[in-house]
Design brief:
Number of domains: 3
Helix content: 25-40%
Largest sheet: 8 strands, mixed
CATH superfamily of the largest domain: Bira Bifunctional Protein, Domain 2
Low-confidence stretches: none
CATH class of the largest domain: Alpha Beta
Distance between the termini: 33 Å
Shape: globular
Strand order of the largest sheet: 10-15-16-23-20-19-17-18
CATH architecture of the largest domain: 2-Layer Sandwich
Amino acid sequence: MSEDKQSVNEKLKKLRHSAAHLLAAAVLDLYPGTKTTIGPATDQGFYYDFDFGQVKISEKDLLKIEKKMKQIAPTWNDFKGREVSPAEAKEHFKNNPYKLELIDEIEAAGQPVTFYQSGEFVDLCRGGHIDAPSKNLQHFKLLKVAGAYWRGDETKPMLTRIYGTAFFDKSSLDAYLTQREEAKKRDHRKLGRELDLFTFSDLVGAGLPLWTPKGTLLRNLLDDYVWQLRREKGYQKVTIPHITKKDLYETSGHWSKFKDDLFKITTREGHQFAMKPMNCPHHTQIYAHKQRSYRELPQRYAETTMVYRDEQTGELNGLSRVRSITQDDAHVFCREGQLEKEMLAIWDIIEKFYHACGFPKLKIRLSLHDPKHFDQYLGTKEQWLKAEEQLRQMIRQRVGDDFIEAQGEAAFYGPKIDFMAYDSLGREWQVATIQADRSMPESFDLSCINEAGTKERIVMIHAAIMGSIERFIAILIEHHAGKFPLWLAPVQVKVLPVSEKQLEYAHEVAAQLQKAQIRVEIDDRAERLSAKIRDAQLEKVPYMVIVGAQEVSAHKLAVRHRDKGDLGVSSLDALIKSDRWQVESR
């Protein structure tokens, strides 16, 4: 990230954190018995969590709170910070158990306890505010109300979270609110229901999506294309179980870092197993089941399979955050000298796949370790710096200096190249990733016999094209507003007979389309043609074929497109050739 952009982001973060203070002040003014907790800035705005006691707050109350914020803001000239003793802080917040808990933690860590005050409002805070809030804190909007457990812990009290956003100027705020309204229309949860792609069941459980026939078809079309591209690069399919002994993740290092995120199973004999949260440790054991010669490398394994993570209920979000995650996972086991060629081959796959899905331009991010918290990573600093520089040079050879670097975004076992996509609303998403890993080969003692007849340590590449299929489909739905490219549309053509008299010909047309491997449905309801066209439009079917008396007698078809409208009369052969060309060309 450039220094200028980083500076702008820091200023925006301070503005939004200041707005969270303003929100808390307004809430306390309107609801004096409320207990305040925490109010951080976020990428999109800010929030503050409150314990309103017996008072119930809904989104209809937001305008009132926002009005109070606008009354208070002009009276705030600055944020005055001061260090206080833990005893003074506890006295000030003696009736607020949430603040007392935070003060105890700060004191136990040996850190200073600081208060920040604006006007009459005082809050426990580390700092990070704007100057001249009365001047700068004008363009904000409260967005929604949600429930949130204190500290994200389901065993602790449920609080009321109020979300908002803030900008330095009105035009930026208006642009964000406009984008947000458009995003609501494109919400994958809404469109997923309307297009009958997936559903959730309280009996099955939150975060566990159930895929309908159309949704399953969409998943398979995406996965089949990824496999086609991988097969061309020499990958082979493997299969692993959905559970594993604890020992596997202890060896890989995942148990110590992610044990709280695992679904655990204890057998009748007392053995501890886990539902797999990732596939890479299993794949190491396929490589390691026999000694490999250098002539056998690279070994390229691919598998699309579900993994499971015990996400907190409050963090689940449609397909974007689920507990059952389908990964299009691949791992390459190769020699150091083969690393660059293999990673660039994966890069080829990523570019081709995302272009076909409607994302022609991807931004590259080199994800690095966080030097302030190196204890979170496997390996030595020297190894990390060398590995990061290797990827940096690899990226430069491919795209020059057109990439960004991000500290703290690496996996715990190695740096990675992340691919960022922009959807039609301009939102940025981290999608595909390629990771270089020398730690897991060390942990599992993975090697090959080299030309000299001695053992040589290998390197492991982790490659995900979609990553989570669930999350990628959520992005895809919102990017296209449900209007998928022709090759991905679950139904590509809808045949619309004008009346029962044309049903026989409609079925003949549908049969020929199916024979040409075009996905087709017939709307044979006793409805007016206008209603059938409207419903096909709502279902976002790319092509509608209208069959009336004239079309039957001429043995032709009247063709409509969901966006272009009436395309005129066509022969069936011409339609098939046009459709097949679009599908095959992607």
